[in-house]
Amino acid sequence: MSLRYNPKKPSILKKDLPKKTRTPKEVEKLQPISQNNIRLDDDIDPKTLLDAIDKVLSRQWNLVPSQLNPDFQAHIQKYRDFLPKLVSRYQLYSIFPNNQTFIDQEIDQLFEDQRIKRILLQDNDDLNDLIMKNEDYRAVLNEHSKKSNDINVQTSIENFINYLDENPKSLKIPKDLIIKTLGDESVSILIKLGFLQIIPQSTTKTLLKISIPKYGYIINLYQTSRKFIVKTINTNKWREIKHNDLYEKWEKNKLKFKDFKGLNLNWILHWLIGEGTLEVFEIGDGKAYRIISK
User: Which pTM was predicted?
Assistant: First the structure.
């Protein structure tokens, strides 16, 4: 399934030009009036972690302008519908500022109660993960089963669902152990579908981790938008920027819909604040951000 939008354009050859180097602008350092427990979204006050997950997902995208080419509009909507409903633990950290311990405990409890699924991003860091409501994860499994006419695929998914019910805390699983339960063919099918992923490691024992198809698109979206934000703020001598200035640059970016598919600015800001790349603080006329780590 291709999600790349390729309008037909004439080929243009350009000479290689020397890259221009930017020097940070000479501006006065912003003066914070408050830096404690600052919420990025003043109108978001979730009562539960599941509510916070819904809030992040509901505000992931901006409306697609009607003046865009209809084919391009359709491409953007197709891309958005294609993505799994995932949020980062770091985004939840930002929703509940200075409450990381609370978030970690809530995630552990919801995971144990089979209310959420966790997708590990780094094999040596169990706190760097993506979170998905269990009902949404099951919906993806059922969708794959219904779309397939292969009885082996359907059986493999059904057995995998039963395995997850019996082993709700599964994150990393020895391959030989799950093969004993599901069978070699089913494990191979689940790896091919993207519900299991091999963990590269130097030991002789192969480990698999629970996964979800297409989550790499979320990571790519994060990396692309993060690069834009960091590059934009780094043009400032003090590596900081007012929210209104950043918002203006984000909205004027010509690649906003091509690269970001109309991503809402606050979606990536929550991620960067939660992971510790940015800090948010209050100034006289609103909020501002400062880079505090690379």
Answer: 0.88
